[in-house]
């Protein structure tokens, strides 16, 4: 058996630690240049994960024609969004921030997180927005019965429904608009129908059109 020397072991650990420190955990770099080049404050910033990220790819005109900015990043949890909220939302000085988040928390992309803690992150984003005179708009998590990249999560639909109930209750208590995509999109199993998605999680172009018709009413 080959035995590594203590010195080499410590060097390897130090190297791994340095790589971790160099990783842009919250992906501040993703929109850094776009933020710098934003000369006019957007009417609304759409903050989210891949569901928001893919929206701009499927229908960029929805954003450019309405003066909206997309700040979705695929794979992100609410914790990561909260960390970059100042740079990607507050510093752009929008009138609204549309927050669609929670799917990847339920999918345990960064490990287990309780729904109460997910809700705390959403509340913190809303409080930051209000403190900076930005109107928060909270969205329901879109429906899904499971995640292809996380098959061990067996109760996705139930957790999404539970989180949406929490989001709605908070929004109503704070008089924050609540955009209910879930009720408009779900099938009989509380999932995303095949006509609206190829993988049961991410909307297709037709689905985004439905979502656009819903959210525009809240962004007058």
Describe this structure in words.
- It is a single chain.
- This protein is an alpha/beta fold.
- The protein is built from 11 helices and 5 strands, in the order ααβααβααβααβαβαα.
- Helix 9 links the parallel strand 4 (135-139) and strand 5 (178-179).
Highlighted features:
single chain, 220 residues, five-stranded parallel beta sheet
Uncertain regions spanning at least 5 consecutive residues: 6-18
Radius of gyration: 19 Å
- Portion in strands: 5-15%
Distance between the termini: 70 Å
Give the tally of β-strands. 5
> Helices and strands, in N-to-C order?
HHEHHEHHEHHEHEHH
Concise account of the structure shown:
The chain is of the alpha/beta class.
List the helices and strands and how they pair.
Elements: H1 6-22, H2 32-36, E1 44-48, H3 50-58, H4 60-66, E2 68-72, H5 78-83, H6 85-88, E3 96-100, H7 103-106, H8 115-131, E4 135-139, H9 156-174, E5 178-179, H10 181-185, H11 205-215
Parallel strand pairs: 1-2, 1-3, 3-4, 4-5
């Amino acid at each position: 058996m080959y035995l590594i020397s203590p010195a080499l072991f410590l060097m390897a650990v130090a190297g791994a630690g340095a790589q971790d420190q160099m990783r842009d955990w919250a992906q501040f770099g993703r929109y850094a240049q776009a933020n710098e080049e934003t000369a006019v404050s957007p009417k609304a910033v759409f903050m989210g994960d891949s569901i928001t990220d893919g929206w701009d790819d499927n229908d960029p005109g929805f954003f450019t024609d309405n003066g909206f900015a997309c700040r979705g990043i695929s794979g992100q949890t609410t914790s990561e969004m909260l960390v970059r909220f100042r740079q990607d939302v507050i510093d752009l000085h929008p009138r609204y921030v549309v927050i669609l988040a929670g799917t990847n928390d339920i999918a345990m992309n960064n490990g287990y997180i309780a729904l109460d803690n997910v809700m705390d992150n959403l509340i913190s984003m809303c409080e930051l927005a209000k403190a900076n005179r930005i109107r928060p708009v909270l969205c329901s998590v879109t429906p899904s019965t499971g995640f292809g990249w996380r098959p061990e999560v067996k109760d996705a639909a139930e957790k999404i429904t539970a989180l949406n109930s929490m989001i709605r209750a908070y929004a109503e208590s704070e008089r924050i608009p609540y955009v209910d995509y879930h009720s408009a999109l779900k099938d009989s199993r509380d999932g995303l129908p095949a006509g609206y998605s190829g993988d049961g999680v991410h909307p297709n172009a037709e689905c985004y059109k439905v979502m656009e018709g819903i959210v525009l009413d809240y962004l007058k």
